[in-house]
Specification:
By secondary structure, the protein is an alpha+beta fold. The chain has eight helices and seven strands. The chain has two domains: 154 residues, Gyrase A, domain 2 (2-Layer Sandwich), CATH 3.30.1360; 71 residues, no CATH class. The longest helix has 27 residues. The mean pLDDT is 92. It binds flavin-adenine dinucleotide (FAD).
């Protein structure tokens, strides 16, 4: 794996980002993450690498045949800054381990709120989804109204703190779905593929899809090139959900 992936931070949405803070196997371990998967599978008969061609073939066989546990031998630990509307959906994936910034310990800052660049319209065909966008003038007006609301909320929050109200309670003045939080989030490669399949899909909400796509493009693919290729071929392009 490219050692420079550790510590790499990619911007997402208006104020968010994802940073890879640790990985198993560690980049200095002398074994690529793809090979760690192959070696884990070969423990069945106490073997290790048989050269790139056979190793890659075995990895593809594993993914194609749902032999998933070797993929759990690779882990990613990210630090992520995302608005609550994203976390609300992300935490439904129970195979991630999380630690979250707490608004009880740390006061929020004035610009800690998500402002969409584009106001998407309600989709006619899917009650959950959005489709298309409003005209430029409406877009600007909605953004102006949102920023004014954020300012008002933040002023009330600050006044409550100044009046001695606790941080844990003063935050009820803040616009819930929009507040940015920084979390540490860890997952293994098998469960990450499940998350990516669901959250990179066209029916996933934009505000989580961009995080899933960033993980896939900037961290998963460079760290696990063989696995990413097999994942694309057998899972992303497949009509059938994996077992
Ligand atoms: C487009 C989209 C729309 C959605 N809409 C809604 C909605 O309207 N309302 C809503 O509430 N949720 C909604 N969700 C969330 C969805 O129902 C799942 O909670 C979420 O996608 C996590 O999926 P998961 O349980 O497979 O993943 P994980 O929690 O990561 O679990 C991974 C896998 O582990 C296994 N597993 C984990 N825990 C258990 C368990 N306790 N028992 C048995 N097996 C387990 C399952 O096989 C599961 O697939 C939506 C998700 C998507 C992608």
């Amino acid at each position: 794996m490219d050692a420079e992936l550790l510590g790499k931070r990619i911007a997402v949405l208006d104020k968010g980002w994802i940073e890879l803070i640790d990985m198993l196997p560690h980049p200095n371990a002398g074994v690529s993450a793809d090979l760690a998967i192959v070696n884990a599978a070969r423990v069945s008969f106490m073997g290790e690498s048989k050269g790139p061609e056979k190793d890659k073939k075995l990895l593809f066989y594993l993914l194609r045949n749902h032999h998933t546990t070797p993929f759990e031998m690779v882990e990613f630990k990210f630090r992520v800054r995302a608005p609550l509307v994203t976390w609300w959906q992300w935490v439904r994936h129970r195979t991630w381990s999380f630690n979250a910034q707490s608004g009880r310990y740390t006061a929020f800052e004035e610009n800690d709120f998500y402002v969409p660049d584009v106001w998407r319209k309600q989709a006619a065909s899917n009650k959950q989804a959005s489709d298309g966008q409003v005209d430029t003038e409406t877009n600007a007006e909605l953004t102006r109204q949102l920023e004014s609301l954020y300012q008002q909320s933040y002023d009330l929050y600050s006044r409550a703190l100044e009046a001695g109200i606790s941080r844990e309670l003063a935050r009820v003045f803040l616009p819930g779905f929009s507040v940015y939080y920084t979390w540490v989030a860890k997952i293994d490669a098998h469960n990450l593929m499940h998350f990516l399949r669901l959250r990179m899909a066209p029916d996933a909400q934009h505000e989580i899809r961009v995080y899933a796509e960033t993980i896939y493009e900037h961290f998963f693919k460079p760290a696990l090139p063989w696995t990413a290729e097999a994942f694309s071929e057998y899972i992303l392009k497949s009509e059938q959900p994996p077992q």
